[in-house]
Amino acid sequence: MRPFLNISLFFFIILFGCNPQKKETLNQFSAQVDTLVLKTNKAKGYGMLNYSVAYGIVTQDTADHREFPVIYPENLHDIKIASARIDTKPARYKRLKKNNSEYLPKFLVKNFPQNIDTANLPTTEENTINILLAKRDGKKVFVVDENNNQDFRDDSVRLLKNYDYKRPELIKCQYSIYNGSKLTKTSGWINTGGDPLMFSVAHHLESSFSIGNNTYKIEAVNGGPFFRFCFENPMLALVSQNGVQKDSVVTSEIIEKGEYLKLGDSFFRLENVSNDGSLVTLIKEKDISDKIGTQVGFMAPDFESRTIDGDSVRSEDFKGKYLLVANLTACGDREENYGYFKDLKQKYGSSFDIVGVENSRESLKQLIKKLSLDGKFIIAEDNPSMRKNYREDFSSRTCFLINPQGKIADKFELSAWKATLSKHFE
């Protein structure tokens, strides 16, 4: 019997040892799955969300730069150096800890360990992308430390141009970022230019996946207030379904963390995007009928505020009729922004109530007088319920149309008021 058992064991090992179990295919899920963990790819450019915020970065003389050693090219003159932080959380953590801030526990609850490893913080060199402004042959040039080695001799020297959002010349660069378990090397794209120097992150995330027989593609970017390389404030939209690609993405189709994405007949909550953007987690919600939020179709959050004239304005005052909460901002071309509001009010002021929301009291007063505006205006900073629910971004231009049933009927940027409101009132 022993030879027979040995032969049987031999064939058992051959059959099962040489045929490993089939692994689950990446980004393919059955219809019964409640949690989707999507692998993403980083793509060049701003994507279909077309979301970019440029900010100025300060330059300094090379003699004043002492944070870490840098090697400069020999053929450049009048060199100044600028540094853009990859992730602001390590510096924020150090500052809170140094000052023994009461906010530190709240910061750690929000970010540790998924977004920061307090025991292994990146060095300043690892957490920085450096740029030189200089002159060569009498012309202004700039150099990006593309391989992040603090040595500018092996990087391209480019002619300095104005910052260009519409037709940018994007630059690929390497950097290190915490991915939820360790600091890892990756790469992405930036857009920079101008003097003073302007800078923006110029890449987005893409993920194609399937649920049962249906295929989808999403795109994601990082929103404010920290427009860096990490994804602590993700914004996401569905851009393709079953092979049908959208031509564009409008504001009402973009969701943020905690909001819901409709995939087929199901709704999935955007639970998280990993700090480096490599993974997106969506969780299925069985019933959204009682959800409150500023997503289209959800019950609009209540608010109770006072206008700049001291009058009380409450959401319940508008029950049974349409209300537009319109965010105004003095950022950018402020007269253009307020001009949109004036034109909107002239055309639709008799069709629904309008509440204008601003953060700058001084700008609001100036432009009310200059453009002869009237109506109900609120300063968000003075009205917490309005600030929390309808004005998270300081320079928001987003408008919320609330229907007579108290639900969000539409959500759009102020500049898109004509195309959006005509769908509802014409």
UniProtKB/TrEMBL annotation:
It holds the Pfam family AhpC-TSA. It comes from the Bacteria. InterPro entries: AhpC/TSA, Thioredoxin-like_sf. SUPFAM superfamilies: Thioredoxin-like. GO terms for molecular function: antioxidant activity; oxidoreductase activity. Residues 296-409 form the Alkyl hydroperoxide reductase subunit C/ Thiol specific antioxidant domain. This is Alkyl hydroperoxide reductase subunit C/ Thiol specific antioxidant domain-containing protein. It comes from Fulvitalea axinellae.
